[in-house]
Amino acid sequence: MIQFTRRGALAAGALAGIAPLARPALGQGRYPSRPVTVICPWGAGGGTDATARIVANLLEKELGQPFNVVNRTGGSGVVGHSAIAQAAPDGHTIGMLTVEIAMMHWQGLTELKPTSYTPLALMNEDPPGVQVNVNSPYRDIKSLADAIKASPAGRFKASGTGQGGIWHLALAGWLLAMGLRADHVRWVPSNGAAPAMQDLAAGGVDLVTCSVPEARAIIEAGRARSLAVMAAQRNPQFPDVPTLKESLGIDYNTGAWRGMAGPANLPPEIARTLTTALQKVYDGREYKEFMASRGFGVVWADAAGFAAFMERSDASLGAAMRAAGLART
Amino acid sequence: MHLSDRITGGFLVLLGALAFWGGSRLPAVPGQDVGPAVFPMVVGGGLALCGALIVLGIGHSFEDEETEPVEAHEGLARWLGAWRALAAFVPPALLLFYVLASEALGFLPTAFVMVAVAALSLGASPRLALAMAVAAPPVVHLVFYKLLRVPLPAGILPAPW
Amino acid sequence: MTAFLEAMRLVAAPDVLIAIMASAVYGLVVGSLPGLSATMATALLVPVTFYLSPIAAVATIITASAMAIFSGDIPGALMRIPGTPASAAYTDEAYAMTRKGQAELALGAGLWFSAIGGIVGTLSLVLMAPALAEMALSFSTFEYFWLAFLGLMCATLVARSSPIKAIAAMLLGLLFACIGIENPGGVPRFTLGITDLLGGIEPIPALVGVFAVSEVMRAMTTPEPPPLPRRRFGSILAGQWALTKKYQWPMWRGNIVGIIIGVLPGAGADMAAWVSYATAKRFSKEPEKFGTGHPEGLVEAGASNNASLASGWVPSLLFGIPGDTITAIAIGVLYMKGLNPGPTLFTERASSMYALYIIFVLANIIMIPLGIVMIRAASLVLRAPRSAVMPVIVLLCAVGAFATGNNLFSVLLVGLFGIVGFVMERNGYPVAALVLGIVMGTMVEQNFVTSLIKSDGDVLPFFERPVSSVLAAMTIAALLWPAAVWAIRRLRPAEAAR
Question: What residues does the DUF1468 domain cover (chain B) (predicted)?
Answer without folding.
Answer: 7-153
